[in-house]
Amino acid sequence: MPRLQIDADPAPIDIDPARTALIIIDMQRDFLEPGGFGETLGNDVSLLGAAIEPCRKVLDAARDTGLLVIHTREGHRPDLSDAPPAKVERGAPSMRIGDAGSMGRILVRGEPGHDIIPALAPEPGEPVLDKPGKGAFYQTDLELMLKNRGAETLLVCGVTTEVCVHTTVREANDRGFRCIVVGDACGSYFPEFHAIGLKMIAAQGGIFGWVSNSDAVAATLAKAEAA
Ligand code: TIU
Fold first, then answer.
1. Cβ distance 40 to 92 under 8 Å?
2. 160 CB less than 6 Å from ligand 1?
3. Which residues form the domain of 193?
């Protein structure tokens, strides 16, 4: 496949679709729907809804182009043995990790709230990566999966911009991956953090990545399909 150019900040970036993977971060009911982890922290979870359609657009384009698609989920084992006490005991949420909520136990694997939202449900053959932390590389086999597939560039979507997306992109950048964050396909409970979080990535000549948007990414991937 020919290399293709994606419009991005701070500058357009060339990608080889055969060496590009899409990573969708934590588009789980626990973050996007009432009754989950995000709401227990005091957040208005409806703010994340704006990222769903842009994620869907990029996901459809990635599937049509045959990109490696990886979905991540933040959550813990039912016995919470992989949940640091410092995480479980933090703050004053209305319910803590492991407590029983309306979508099952908060941020626990296997519970309804831990599932990816139906609009972005993984398809067979798309790895779903469970992670105990904010970053998708910490205590997971993501780096191994990407290296096995020869990935050099990552398209990154998901929630939340300044927490799990940022942590993952920083981890990926240090491992030598080129990260293109799809801005409108990310979301935050804090619109100002979302806006500044995207600026932080692309500032200083793209200090730890590039920022694009779902239309630009989908249009570029469509050229790969046509080629
Ligand atoms: N609370 C918040 O903004 N985010 C998280 O706890 N996890 C992710 O970002 N996925």
1. no
2. yes
3. 21-145+155-208
Catalytic residues: 26, 131, 164
Q: Is the CB of 30 under 6 A from ligand 1?
A: no
Instruction: For residue 93, tell me if it sits in a domain.
Output: yes
Helix spans in the chain (H): 29-32, 37-40, 52-65, 85-88, 142-148, 166-174, 191-206, 214-226
Does the C-beta of 134 come closer than 6 Å to ligand 1? yes
Distance of alpha carbon 111 from alpha carbon 94, whole angstroms: 18
Question: Is 166 part of any domain?
Answer: yes
pTM of the predicted structure, to 2 decimals:
0.98
pLDDT in tens, the chain (227 residues): 678 999 999 999 999 999 999 999 999 999 999 999 999 999 999 999 999 999 999 999 999 999 999 999 999 999 999 999 999 999 999 999 999 999 999 999 999 999 999 999 999 999 999 999 999 999 999 999 999 999 999 999 999 999 999 999 999 999 999 999 999 999 999 999 999 999 999 999 999 999 999 999 999 999 987 87
Q: How many independent structural domains does the chain possess?
A: 1
Residue among 24, 33, 74 to mutate when testing ligand 1 (max atoms within 8 A of CB): 74
Residue with tokens 């588009």: 27
